[in-house]
Specification:
Length: about 350
């Protein structure tokens, strides 16, 4: 597939600086550009690569001002990064999808399979399960009894959707991810821990993407719910009865403990943790390694453990670096005070 700068600009409602007939057939990072490639510039740290890149076309923000001659054709758009995502989505959608059920797959006669579905070798679809139209089920996927997977989904190898759980439309589940494993529920007794049956479900709404080896546990009762548009990175843990609000994004190695509720449009940095039974508001931003031990109101920017306002964390970090000198000063002052006290007592 090949597109000209003019066609790209028309698709993105942009304008062309340079040769509108410059053609591209692939994508490349701006520092690794080659003839026939399309690149983008949205971070000013990479501006110097624009003047040396070999890419044929580069997406830039509409207000970008070049300080040196540029050999590549520029397509000016409102948001270069967002426009790149649109182009890559268009490119991916034009690739023909797989269809057909492998003879090595195990698909129950009691399952409902939609149109144009692909089910790869050694995948299992159990009794009463439903798979929507155009969904791609890769090898070694297991869709449990009575589970539902919507239309236009992609389930990569070794994904497991446990019995009774639900996956919406246009969801992407990466390799090794699990929807509906038991929540971590145990009752202590004098002889050990008794397992509390987890009789609820886990549900992903439409347009959710979860990364490799991420787990969304089923609820003790009711449901664990990941609302529409949420994006979970690799190795994220969503515990039982958690609710994650619409369009929230959560980075790798983050864990959310049971029964906590996270609002919409939050951004949670990597290796963060949220204690159980908390309420996190809408549009809350967590810096990396943040640990929330109490409720957080809407619109907060927090960081650190225990979590604190971002600016307070920066001030505390500065003080932490000064602690050795402060300790030395305190010891000297303490010594001087003891010497003054001794002199006063001797009079």
């Amino acid at each position: 597939m090949e597109f000209t700068a003019k066609q790209i600009a028309e698709f993105l409602n942009g304008t062309v600086d340079g040769n509108e007939n410059a053609a591209v057939h692939t994508f490349a990072k701006i520092e690794e550009g080659a003839e026939g490639a399309l690149s983008f510039l949205s971070n000013v740290k990479y501006t110097h690569y624009l003047y040396t890149t070999k890419s044929s076309v580069v997406l830039v923000n509409r207000d970008f001002v070049a300080e040196q001659p540029v050999s590549a054709t520029l397509v000016r758009v409102d948001n270069a990064y967002e426009s790149l995502a649109k182009l890559m989505s268009l490119y991916a959608s034009m690739k023909p999808g797989r269809t057909g059920i492998s003879s090595l797959a195990s698909v129950s006669d009691k399952a409902k399979i939609g149109k144009n579905v692909y089910i790869g070798p050694f995948a299992v679809v159990e009794d009463g399960a439903t798979v929507g139209d155009n969904t791609q089920i890769y090898p070694h996927v297991n869709i449990g009894e009575g589970a539902t997977v919507g239309a236009d989904c992609i389930l990569y190898p070794n994904v497991t959707v446990y019995y009774g759980c639900k996956v919406g439309n246009r969801c992407i589940l990466h390799a090794g991810s699990v929807v509906g494993a038991d929540g971590f529920g145990f009752a202590p007794t004098p002889n050990g821990y008794n397992k509390i049956p987890q009789i609820g479900i886990a549900e992903l709404e439409d347009d959710v993407e979860i990364g490799a080896n991420t787990c969304v546990d089923r609820s003790t009762m009711g449901r664990t719910i990941v609302h529409k548009g949420v994006k979970l990175d690799n190795m994220v843990q969503i515990a039982h009865n958690v609710s994650v609000g619409e369009h929230t994004v959560i980075s790798a190695q983050t864990g959310i403990a049971g029964s906590s509720k996270v609002g919409a449009w939050c951004m949670i940095g990597g290796q963060s943790g949220i204690s159980g039974h908390l309420s996190i508001g809408n549009k809350v931003n967590f810096g990396a390694k943040t640990g929330a031990l109490s409720n957080v109101e809407d619109g907060q920017n927090i960081m650190g453990y225990p979590a604190m306002p971002y600016r307070g964390f920066l001030r505390s970090s500065i003080l932490m670096r000064q602690l050795p000198e402060m300790d030395s000063t305190i010891r000297e002052l303490k010594k001087e005070i003891e010497e003054l006290k001794a002199k006063l007592e001797s009079k």
